[in-house]
Amino acid sequence: MKLIDEHQDRFGAEPVLRELHIPASTYYRWRHDVAEPCERKRHDAELTEHIRRIHADSGETYGSPRVHAVLRREGTRVGRKRVERLMRQAGIQGVSPRRPRSFTRRDPAADLAPDLVQRDFTAVAPNRLWVADISLIPTREGPWWLATIRDAFSRRIVGWHTSERADADLVLTALEYALHGRPVEPGQLVHHSDHGCQYTSIKLTTRLLKAGIEPSMGSVGDSFDNALAENFWSVLKTECVRRTTFETRTDADLALFAYIDGWYNTRRIQKRLGWLSPDEYEAKFYADQATAEPVTVEPPTPVLTR
Questions:
Q1: What is the pLDDT of residue 268?
Q2: Which residue among 10, 130, 173, 221 sits deepest, i.e. has the most Cβ atoms within 10 Å of its Cβ?
Q3: Intra-chain end-to-end CA distance of the chain, in Å
Q4: Greatest CA span in the chain, whole angstroms?
């Protein structure tokens, strides 16, 4: 059609159409649709702009399921297939994960905690099950290690820390940050990790004991035994780490802070949370708890004895 527009002033539209074997009615119908698009096409154009905004707000990470969920949260009723079609036509797509690598090593002489989780990463409330792991964040300045603790209930990252060394101090500091910001009842919380030497260290096990936290361990290098922690590495590496090259460790720390505290915990919606972010999911839980009607227990009927 562009060819016709370029040459119709010189040759006229219909001679060009005859040479191209295009019916004149098809061309004029196309011109009419461009000048006066139908209501559905106008709506598609408006919807595509909304999709572009949502995709950009996510750091260009959201695919069609999350874009569709955000549209519904904003009050836009639209089918998921339509969102997929518009994203495909506009060349908009989310990011895809890769298989994560394991970086922990087992200390053969360490005393191991039992596996209290048995691959059941569910919890009835916050601060009942935390999963912990470490991973490498590459930078041009050198390796940068990240330790995280994730709450199984809301999938929130409740504590994290970075260091040049993947040692016991790294995981212990992440735990201290988690304990500083979360009310933990002694005897109610399980801390699950693999058999890495950082998690079997005296420093960490002693701190868990003092806090009344029950240690639990899966095996080393088994993504199923610590699947919830491995899942976060997949998300983090896909949406944050692999999309850029960090010149310095400071650059990596700033990016991790912006992603974990500024995006993942507060705004990134998840299907398993009913398309809420971890913070929203916990806020809803506590709001429901506050508005729940207290259960009244009737006193027992007194038994008359002679």
A1: 96
A2: 130
A3: 104
A4: 118
pLDDT value for 142 = 92
Would you state the pLDDT for residue 218? Answer: 85
Determine the Cα–Cα distance for residues 146 and 105; give it in Å rounded to an integer: 15
Domains of the chain, first to last:
1-90 (no CATH), 129-276 (3.30.420.10)
**211: number of Cβ within 10 Å:** 15
Token output for 141 = 């300045």
Task: Show the low-confidence residues of the chain (pLDDT under 70).
Answer: 1-22, 24-25, 27-38, 96-111, 220-223, 293-306
**Cβ count near 260 (within 10 Å):** 20
Can you read off the two tokens belonging to residue 63? 């695919």
pTM of structure: 0.74
H/E stretch holding 279: helix 278-291
The encoded tokens of residue 80 equal: 């998921």
* Token duo for residue 194: 């693999």
Sheet holding 190-193, edge to edge: 157-163, 144-151, 129-137, 190-193, 214-217
pLDDT in the model for residue 226: 87
